[in-house]
Amino acid sequence: MKLGRFVISVVAVCSATGGPHYKTFDGRRYNFMGKCEYVLAKDSNETFMILQDSEPCGRGKATCTNAVTVNIQGTIIYLRRGENVLVNGANVTLPYSNQGMNIKTFKKRGIKITTDIDLIVEYDGVFNVFVKVTNSYKGKLSGLCGNFNGKRGDEFKTPKDKLVQKAVTFGNSWKIGDSCPDVESVEEDPCKNASKRAQKAKEECSALKKQPFSRCRKALDPNAGYIKDCEYDVCACEDNPKACLCESFAAYEEACDDLGIEVKWKHLKKFAKCSKLKYIELK
User: Fold this and answer.
1) CATH ID of 12-173, from 3.40.1000.10, 1.10.1740.10, 3.40.50.2300, 3.40.640.10
2) What pTM value is reported for the model?
3) What is the annotated signal peptide range for this record (predicted)?
């Protein structure tokens, strides 16, 4: 993948999307409804660290990303929903380039950070975050994104390298500071006791099986977690299901992009509600 003056051969992607649903570098999926700031990913040499700040979205227990902090060799980049990009506390104009990194706009409202340390960070400006790395970090990572050692069974390791079984225990262990309470449990499927909303979610999320998304279906089955996550989020986002639906579409689009398959959908009339989405609607 050639980006600016950097050529990065991405081999692994971690994502935190929607309510939030995590997919680790090694491909393990789990849900964690944290309402604090957490270490999303960091490397053992302390070259970089990425923090994810989550807040409640909707009236249930679901939470969504509202800010991302990226520390690259001491340079602090702060990305917050609907606000300007800060580098070491100062507003910067994009595109911005300095000390082995480029920051530019990404798909209209998002931000993409590319670096010369084999790392890409993308925040779509709403709920979705993507961290992309090369093989140079194999077995050297930790945080909510997992350890990138090629095994899905040992992803849930705490900062003390203890393997735990529950996503909640794992997620809480990566919390920054003690100002926020620990999450006590994973919220049960919000569609379970919401028959009308569940039916609506099922109908709307089925769009991932149809054109234009279906051109990616052979390479990436939408039933491999994407539709389930979509339905979950539409049910959970009681006060703004539109934002959650659109972000589910965007998450699948980005996963397809990573496979080299471009899916153009926002310009279509049936998705007009997504292209017109404004930050004020998401708060």
Assistant:
1) 3.40.1000.10
2) 0.90
3) none
